[in-house]
Amino acid sequence: MENTKSRQVIDTYIKIIILSILLTASFFIIKPFITIIIWSTLVAIALYPFYLKVINLFKGKKKGLVTTLFILILLAVIVVPTISLSKSIVSSSKEIKENFEAGIINIPPPNESIKEWPLIGEKTYKAWSSANKNIEDFVVTYKDQLGDFLGTLFSSFTGLMGSVFLALFSLIFAGIFMLSAESGYRSAVQFANRIKDGKGEELVRMVVNTVRSVVKGILLVAIIQAGLAYLGFVVIGLPAAAFFAFLVLILAIVQIPALLAMIPAIAIVFSTHDSLPAIIFTIYIIFVALSDNFLKPMLLGKGLQTPMLVILIGALGGMIFMGMLGLFIGPVILAVVHQMYMTWVSEVEIPTKIENISEDS
User: Fold this and answer.
1) Contacts 24+ apart (CB under 8 A), 304-308
2) 34: number of CA atoms within 13 Å, CB side?
3) Whole-model pTM?
């Protein structure tokens, strides 16, 4: 009897060791592809409702061909604006560099009203005046600040371009995932049932809805703000309009007020245009900057049991902790933890009436 128990214990340990070896080896094998797999899954989750409508238009016929065309169109939607933005930024940077080397950069003089800006008015007016009088002295005086700003901007730009290329590959794999979405969904539910028996489908739906909520409430809002801002910049004739729109996009994604990227644009317009068009432009830009205040409540957390604050904290904390990928994984983790917490505390019965407890007692 004891020998049988010993053999069972030994067999169990051997199985655990073999399983550990297999899981560890599998992890290192797929490690180079983990990021793109996660991105592809997120993209597939976000696009699947739209993809399903397209498939239904063709009544499910030639599904593979329709999926291929669907992905190619989405790739074009990403590639064309990216190429246009890159060309505009490179062209603007090249023009600024050539003008600086030729000594013909013309910085317009600041408006006297800038002095009245709270906190930063005097300093901004002084720095702007210095740039207007002698751009070379301005660069020498503020070289550290300009270096830090340009370094941060370059890092953000390269990071965004890296995300764009990653998105292109993710779209291709997402198309494959969407083709087998039904079997993937069943497998996810079965796996979730192993984690939380009987609640697998509810858990999977919560994860799916959280990802789609973040896409709509953060990324879509950022794209809308950047697009509207770019339209205003182009109409008013702002130099380097694509550059300022890019700044708006970055700040909106990382949840920093987009107005910070628009203030320099407003100042330039007031210094180079008449008062009436400048005022109209300012009103429009402020509206665009504040548009997230009503767009986010409409899109972020809509239809979810998880509070919007939990989703927002998860997005911000996840992005700080894990970068752009954390923007999606953070809310999912917090949503799952929130659901587990609510299930746990709901199992505890509380009295129907809680009497006041006096300080004496």
Assistant:
1) 304/206, 304/209, 304/210, 304/213, 304/335, 305/206, 305/339, 306/206, 306/210, 306/331, 306/334, 306/335, 306/338, 306/339, 307/338
2) 8
3) 0.64
Q: Nearest to residue 329, comparing CAs of 341, 311, 343, 309?
A: 311
How many residues in the chain? 361
Return the pLDDT at 275. 80
What pLDDT does 105 receive? 53
- CB atoms closer than 10 angstroms to residue 302: 14
* Residue that is written with structure tokens 């793109």 in the block: 36
User: What does each C-alpha distance from 1 to 10, 14, 126, 176 come to in angstroms?
Assistant: 14, 20, 91, 53
Identify the pLDDT of residue 91.
Answer: 65
| Residues 227-246: b if buried by 16+ CB within 10 A, e if exposed | ebbbebbeebebebbbbbbb
Inter-residue contact 236 to 281 (CB < 8 Å): yes
- pLDDT one-digit tens code per residue, 298-342: 777 666 667 777 887 888 888 888 777 777 788 888 888 887 777
Q: Which of 167, 158, 164 is nearest to 46 (CA)?
A: 167
Please identify every stretch of the chain with a pLDDT value under 70, giving residue numbers as ranges. 1-3, 60, 81-164, 167, 301-305, 346-361
Question: Which amino acid, one-letter code, is at 199?
Answer: K
CB of 54 closer than 8 Å to CB of 66 = yes
Q: Based on the number of CB atoms within 10 Å of its own CB, is 283 exposed (0-12), middle (13-18) or buried (19 or more)?
A: exposed
Q: Give residues with Cβ within 8 angstroms of 136, minimum separation 6.
A: 103
Helix ranges (H only) for the chain are 2-30, 34-57, 63-102, 121-133, 135-141, 143-179, 181-195, 200-214, 221-236, 241-253, 259-272, 275-290, 292-299, 308-322, 326-346
Q: Using CA atoms, how far apart are residues 243 and 84, in angstroms rounded to an integer?
A: 11
Give the per-residue pLDDT at 24. Answer: 93
